[in-house]
Amino acid sequence: MTTDSTPIETTDGFHLVIDALKLNGLDTIFTVPGIPITDLTRMAQAEGMRVISFRHEQHAGNAATAAGFLTQKPGIALTVSAPGFLNGLTALTNATTNCFPMILISGSSEREIVDLQQGDYEEMDQLAIAKPLCKAAFRVLHAQDIGVGIARAIRAAVSGRPGGVYLDLPAKLFSQTMDAAAGKKSLIKVVDAAPRQLPAPESVQRALDLLKGAKRPLILLGKGAAYAQADADIRALVERSGIPYLPMSMAKGLLPDTHEQSASAARSYVLAEADVVLLVGARLNWLLSHGKGKTWGGDKAAERQFIQIDIAPTEMDSNVPIAAPLVGDIGSCVAALLTGMGSNWAKPPAEWTGAVNERRIKNLAKMAETLALNPPVMNFHSALNAIRNVVKANPEAIVVNEGANTLDFARSIVDMYLPRKRLDVGTWGIMGIGMGFSVAAAVVTGKPVIAIEGDSAFGFSGMEVETICRYNLPVCVVVFNNNGIYRGIDQNPTGGPDVAPTVFVKNARYDLMMTAFGGVGVHATTPAELQKALEEAVASGKPTLINAVIDETAGTESGRITSLNPSAGKKK
Predict the structure, then answer these.
(1) SS3 for 402-426, per residue?
(2) Which CATH number fits domain 10-186: 3.40.50.300, 3.40.1160.10, 3.40.50.2300, 3.40.50.970?
(3) What's this model's pTM, rounded to 2 decimal places?
(4) Which residue in 30, 245, 416, 519 has the most C-beta neighbors within 10 A?
């Protein structure tokens, strides 16, 4: 009698996680290694995945968020337990708020110890904490369920309204073993993770009837329109309709900002005067004054009618009545509108388009005069004009932007020409996205990245310039240095030795941070120096930081949202 002594091939939790991600086309992980996920990062790299290691988990999470927006696939952030998990929560919540697909995977303590509160290493009930802050949260306890857990996380992240998903993997899971063949069968390749959701025909007709009767129509494009990657149809909708359009900041470039129908330079006028507004992937939240009030013409706001395209029916009527809700994915809704419009759609009244165009030309001329000035000390306008010129010459470059005044001025000054080339703080207005977004943009697109940073915003993630240098990424960081938050001239009212809370070290040399890690650092005090350094950085693809010294008196408190400060306007 003989027996087969051939050993049974086994696999473990580490490899099942890696194989499940790879099976679903997720080949990049953004992480900070540590217990209990260090070996997972090593094995993932050995299996051909790209593992980008950061200095802080929040920035790894931000990178995953940006990757999700750019690719329509969930970005993967991997953290250690407890403190690392908590560091990743800001990015997870930001992804959910902005509707970007990402998955935060964290190692965790063992359930039996956590539930009895026996004091395990970094003990924390992470799943309970994550649940209210993300779209969905799952925990996997057994190796044979890893495939299901990752499949559910992927589908939750990208289906319907995209968002952040938390996946909890206790440390013991990784070392669990099982038959390799059974393990392979347990994995799931997600099919049609974000299926099309077609709008109801009557909803399409209602929207078309409303547009047809409009005397002063406006199309408002949000970042959801950029995420949808329905670029050709969105452009066709705008051009065939002849309706002026207004892009929100991350929708800039769906059509070139220089397009003749762009109403960006007449923003205040069109928001106050439009009688029918078509919202495409935009929400009437605080960024649009909730669809009411002075921004929308005061008393006229009550007469305005909205058409809203959104995949979530619960978004309708969240602030004002939506006369024509169009529920479905943006690509399908826009295609349905185009079909319904046909080829003989009547353009808006010339009185409306002419009035918008007149204000657009007038305001652009005013802006051109301001940008042409060259004050003795750079200000936001003269510095951003230099960047504007470089972006115009390099439309494929991705612009990352954060700050207060630095963000507000850049939104209106730096033109974008192609879709998904602008990443910024989004709905939550969160600072600290700069370096994480920049790393992700460079990694997933291979394109040059220009990060326009206020000096305060840069402080949130500045250490990640080492990450940029370590991976030799084509990122140029431009720090607008005015010696403080908003500006650098505030005084301590007591006359004491401490500087004012908004003031930084005077004449800081941020450029030396980049040179410390082997990158290129440039100290620029004029627009010509700034433009030359930026042109060279984009051409070379070398990690670069330009310390752009601007007038410390430039800027206003909180940029254009000063009114949100309870003491705004009070005499000091």
Answers:
(1) ECCHHHHHHHHHCCCCCCCCEEECC
(2) 3.40.50.970
(3) 0.95
(4) 30
